[in-house]
Amino acid sequence: TTMRWSNRFLSTVLDVAKCQNVRQCSSSATFALASRKRSNTAVKTRRLKLFEEEKERQRRRVTDVEKIQVQYSDQPEHCTLIMNKMMSTPYDCARHVSQWVGDRAVLAEVDGKLWDMHRPLEGDVEALKFLHFRESDPFYVNRAFWRSCSIMLGSVLESAFKDRFYLQLCSFPAPNVRTGSFIYDVDLGMDWQPTKDELRVLSSEMVRLSMRQLPFERLVVPMVVALDMFSDNMYKSSQIPSIADAEKSDSITLYRVGEFVDVSCGPLIANTRQLGRVTITACYPIPIGEASGKPPLLRIQGVALPEGILMNHYSYSILETRARKMNEGRLPDPLQMQGEAQ
């Protein structure tokens, strides 16, 4: 069963060194040598600690509770909500309207601007609207969903290998539903060719993460703080200044889901439970650089449906087949490591 494979996966920690289909690669980079002394658990714990410290620092700056008016003009009725500036979120507003509105809301529109459901409101709102998966034009909702799937995949990958292999998440291209798959490019320090059973277990871990119903928490931090958080990841460390330059800002937008923290411009969906059916379908090597013996990045791909969107087995199998094809989305440039709007 899937659960039996999940237990086996977690207990053996993907002992790829014993698998015939894995080729261990050496790395000439000094960073890679140093990374052997790191552990995924220690890096993740430190990053989360820094995130929480910065969140608390920002919270302490809000010394007074200032009331704001939020105008809601959608179903089931128009109303004016009295909320707290820099504290209340669209999710709080939705729960005041009705539990039904709060449960189905994926994104918010705050005076016409896309807004994360758990992002604090910064002032009076003249028009608050909630977006859901059954919108007549789901373009923005679909992009947020695809982007959130990549973030969840990054979280699963960072946890799946535990401390056996030091994994560095690289990046994922801007979401494009037409490609047929969401992706994350990672550096495992080797050319890993997962079996069908290993991919199936990763799919199971995505479902487990979904079942935790974790919110996607947004936090904008100074670039120096972001660089400190990701000092153990050579890809993110290179991308962060480029992202700041592209946005003409000294700040970086981060998201937390559970114990996982990543860089993304957002917006993301409200919580992990809004992920429905999901399959991790393929893993492709991406050659990086010209140096011989340098391990490739791995492009790991998947396909998913939002919660509540049902599809028969045959139709979903067509989506899975398409998602197994190499996603030709923008490849990372290890030489320039330019930031992108993830």
TrEMBL record:
Matches recorded under SUPFAM superfamilies: TGS-like (SSF81271), ThrRS/AlaRS common domain (SSF55186)
CDD domains xrefs: TGS_ThrRS
Record-linked Gene3D superfamilies: 3.10.20.30, Threonyl-trna Synthetase, Chain A, domain 2 (3.30.980.10)
Domain called TGS: residue spans: 87-124
One Gene Ontology term from the biological process aspect of the record: threonyl-tRNA aminoacylation
MF-aspect GO terms: nucleotide binding; threonine-tRNA ligase activity
GO cellular component term, pick one: ribosome
Any Pfam family matching the protein: TGS
Domain of life of the native organism: Eukaryota
Swiss-Prot/TrEMBL keywords: Protein biosynthesis, Ribonucleoprotein, Ribosomal protein
Protein name as annotated: 39S ribosomal protein L39, mitochondrial-like
Species: Hirondellea gigas
Lineage: Eukaryota, Metazoa, Ecdysozoa, Arthropoda, Crustacea
